[in-house]
Every structure is written in structure tokens, then in C-alpha cells.
Amino acid sequence: MQKRQASEFYPHSNQEERPVIDYFTGLFNQIIFKHEPILTDFLDPGKRAILKTIVGNDVFMQEYGGYPNAEKKRVYLSEEWVNLQPSDYLIEPYEIEYPQKFIKINHSAILGTLANSGIETDTFGDIITDENGKWQFFAKKELVDFFEEQITRIGRAQVKLKEITFKDVLVPEDDSTEKTEIVASMRIDAVLSSISKQSRGQIQKLIENHLVKLNWHDIADSNIMVKENDILSLRHFGRILIEDVSATRKGKYKVVLKLWQTKKRN
């Protein structure tokens, strides 16, 4: 295997993604020179896609986020295949203990507390709930002392982080809804306009302000064409999976989608 150059991957990426490309290219080069496996932080699907592009078929990628269908996962990179157990990913699942009878906490409050605690967001994974007040999240085992000592309050609630086993991890319910939209064009601004009931002009401004993602990547072009299996994210509205696209007799497009709508704060 030969050393990778980060600049090789720049033409297919956004300017904002270059630091990520630089970092992942460095990881790949480290593996082939030191011949030692690497365990990454928690990576979202967009970053994992970039990592996969860089390592190609020269390095094995195995990933785990603490439960099936996790969004953020730690990735184990190695030259040789290794049979891994969940414990090998050094993930600590936590349940948040707080006085549920007297106060409520929500995803936004938990995320805000973790993100503003002085650590990088890649050091913790998904935040999940049973929709009945129970909340759990996943953290790097290397930082358990920090999390347990520093996270003592979320919003107005005093909390305690309880270490749990993977057997105690919740199975999050799929709260998506199935929808069908008829759109005049498969341009991303037209599709999002129809789904969100905002004008194309409003959507274009949101794209310009980097509030829209396509397949986990920031975009700056309203002319991008959307296709089946694409995932769109519109800040403060939700996430959309394009499941099926078919043409209508009148020259428009019938789009079948799944929508995970952003929940408003309590």
C-alpha cells in the first residue's frame, strides 16, 4: 500500500470537509506505516463515508455505535480482519437519572449540555429515549471520569449518569412518517419546498446559510438533483429519506419518502 495524499480527495469535497479529509488521510497513513489498528471517535454517516472513500479496500472498517442502527459510530480500522465484540469499541452506555416526576428533560437540553461541557462532540454518540422520560447516551470509555464528574445538571434538572450494560440499552422506536409528494422538479430546493411547505426562495436562503445537508454533507447549490436513497436534512424541520421516485403522466414526479420531523422543545 502507498501513502495517500489528502489533496487527491479535495476535488470531490466541499471546502469545509478538507480538515476531515486531512485527518482521515493521516489515520490511513499511520496504519500502513505503523501496522497498528486505530479506533476512531464517534463519526456520523457523512464522516464515515469520507473515511471509506479514503481507505478504500486497503483497510478493514468495522463500526459500532452502542445499539443497532445507531447514527454515530466508532470505527475500528485494521489491516487484518479482527472478530470484534461490542466491548472492543470502548463505548460506555449511560442512563440519565433525574427526578422524572417533577421535571422533564429533552434531546436538545442533553445535547446542549454535552456539547458545551468542554469536550468535542465526537466523544459521545447517539442520545436515545423510550419517549416516556427515560434517556440514554453513549460515550467514549476513555472519558468516563470526565462525563461522570462534569455532567451533573441538564437544564434545570440535577442528574446522575448511571453506567449500564448493552443489554439495558433501549430499542428506540422509529418515529418517522411515510409521505408522498408530487413535485415539479427533483432539484433539492423544489423537493424541500414541497415537503416543508416553504417557498423555494426560503429554501435557497437556507441552503446559502448552510442549514441544508445532502447525505450528511453541507451543500451550497440549489440546483443539485435528488435521487432515490438520498437523505436530506433541513435544520429545524427534520430529516428525509427519499424511498422512491416515479414520473407522473403530467411530467411531474411522485416522491415517496420517510420523514423524521424535528420535535419542538417543550
UniProtKB/TrEMBL annotation:
Keyword check for RNA-binding, yes or no.
Answer: yes
GO MF: RNA binding
The record's listing under SMART domains reads: S4
- According to its UniProt entry, this protein's organism is Lactobacillus helveticus
Q: Could you identify this protein by its name?
A: RNA-binding S4 domain-containing protein
Highest taxon of the lineage: Bacteria
Q: Which UniProt keywords apply?
A: RNA-binding
What InterPro entries does its record include?
Answer: Nucleotide-bd_a/b_plait_sf, RqcP2_RBD, S4_RNA-bd, S4_RNA-bd_sf
Gene3D superfamilies linked to this entry: 3.30.1370.160, 3.30.70.330, RNA-binding S4 domain
- Pfam families, per database record: S4, YlmH_RBD
What residue stretches are annotated with the RNA-binding S4 domain?
186-243
